[in-house]
Design brief:
Order of helices and strands: HEEEHEHE
Radius of gyration: 14 Å
Helix content: 25-40%
Shape: globular
Distance between the termini: 22 Å
Structural class: alpha+beta
Largest sheet: 5 strands, antiparallel
Strand content: 25-35%
Oligomer: single chain
Number of strands: 5
């Protein structure tokens, strides 16, 4: 799964809105150190379980999925801080070891 073009992002949000479905948008707001995506990367989460885009993959993306599911249920948006230390990265076979602030927005 790769990054999502802005035109596709808004089209998918609009289509879900027309169907009356809640959509959650995760946006990388800030990065520090080595991270899998840069500021501005987006990922969409739909009520039916589908996703589009990416905020990085691996451990951080799994944590973002969990927060997105919570936002889908509650309807509440929030900024979340995710950290992947060099030790955790090496255990997972990854090369990144930075931190990311990701805004999870329930629409």
């Amino acid at each position: 799964m790769g990054t999502i073009a802005q035109t596709d992002l808004y089209r998918l949000i609009s289509e879900a809105s027309k169907r009356g479905e809640r959509v959650v948008v995760a946006t990388v707001a800030r990065t520090r150190g080595s991270t899998p995506q840069q500021k501005g990367a987006k990922m969409l989460f739909f009520a039916n379980g589908e996703v589009a885009g990416t905020v990085g993959g691996g451990c951080i993306e799994a944590e973002v999925w969990a927060e997105a599911r919570d936002a889908m249920r509650s309807g509440k948006s929030a900024l979340h801080h995710f950290s992947l230390t060099a030790e955790e990265a090496s255990e997972e076979g990854m090369v990144c070891g930075g931190t990311m602030d990701i805004f999870i927005d329930a629409l």
